[in-house]
Write a structure and sequence with these properties.
single chain, 277 residues, alpha+beta, nine-stranded antiparallel sheet, 9 strands, 14% helix, disordered N terminus
């Protein structure tokens, strides 16, 4: 049963492990790797500067354990009662039936298609566990290390584009709410899944994600998000708050996916039909 979660992970493991080895910093605790906290850096226009490489303190094994803050569907530490619903808990009846028909072999990331959101509940991470923000006065750019995808977020007041086809990562615009950057993303293709590594998590072309980025201090970034999909979900999904730390390096690496390394895993998954009775 657990093998269904391994197929896609194997595709990513060698590249991510290589990055960790080259950095020589994987597994370092955020407190040990980062300098003393300071005030939030700001741009010339007074807005917080979100620029930097962000992670959770490791680029290998960075997934929080189930039930801990940051895990899929997890709530804040110390929360009483049952955990809040996860994304797939909110599937409509028809979506639940479709969910049962899919498995690891159907994961779009096996074909080098990025996630629409992020396996670790961080849009900037995508499939991996490291991302970079580059900020200018008129836009914020999110760079995802694994699959080398990106998201350009205009912050100059322009509306969503209505002349572009649906995209794997959607179309984003941003605005400042005080010191919080609010990112509104829609016009998604329905091809990618929300997550990767065997997590069946399809969505429709009506997917709409609103994220809120707030730099707490010089070394800490908090991200909150709400996910809506009226064609698939019964209600909006409130994503657990994510806390990221400034990494001890200032540039992400290029970890592309060619598709050649995934073909044998796709074939194996199709033959063994993991988890099906």
């Amino acid at each position: 049963m657990k093998r269904a979660l391994i197929i896609t992970a194997l595709v990513l493991a060698s590249a991510v492990s290589l990055a960790a080895a080259q950095r020589g910093a994987a597994g370092a605790a955020p407190a040990a790797a980062a300098p003393a906290k300071g005030p939030v850096p700001r741009m010339a226009d007074g807005h917080p500067d979100l620029s930097g490489v962000w992670w959770r303190g490791s680029d290998v094994g960075g997934r929080p354990a189930p039930g801990t803050p940051g895990a899929l569907g997890a709530g804040p530490r110390g929360q009483q009662g049952p955990p809040p619903p996860s994304y797939t808990d909110l599937y409509q009846l028809a979506a639940k039936e479709q969910f049962k028909k899919l498995g690891d072999k159907d994961d779009p990331t096996l074909k080098c298609i990025p996630t629409s959101f992020g396996t670790l509940n961080v849009s900037m991470f995508g499939v991996g566990a490291v991302g970079q923000i580059v900020q200018t006065p008129k836009q914020v750019v999110l760079l995802t290390e694994t699959f080398h995808s990106f998201k350009i977020i205009p912050t100059d007041g322009r509306p969503h584009r209505d002349d572009v086809p649906p995209a794997w990562r959607g179309d984003s615009v941003g605005r400042w709410d005080g010191d919080t950057l609010v990112v509104d993303t829609k016009n998604f293709s329905d091809v990618p899944w929300m997550f990767a590594e065997g997590r069946v998590s399809f969505h429709s072309d009506a997917l709409h994600i609103v994220e809120r980025y707030r730099r707490v201090d010089s070394n800490t970034l908090e991200i909150e998000a709400t996910v809506e999909d009226p064609k698939v979900l019964t209600a909006p999904w409130t994503v657990p708050k994510q806390t990221l730390y400034l990494a001890p390096f200032d540039q992400i690496m290029e970890l592309n996916c060619s598709g050649f390394e995934t073909q044998s895993l796709m074939d194996a998954a199709a033959k063994e039909n993991y988890g099906k009775k």
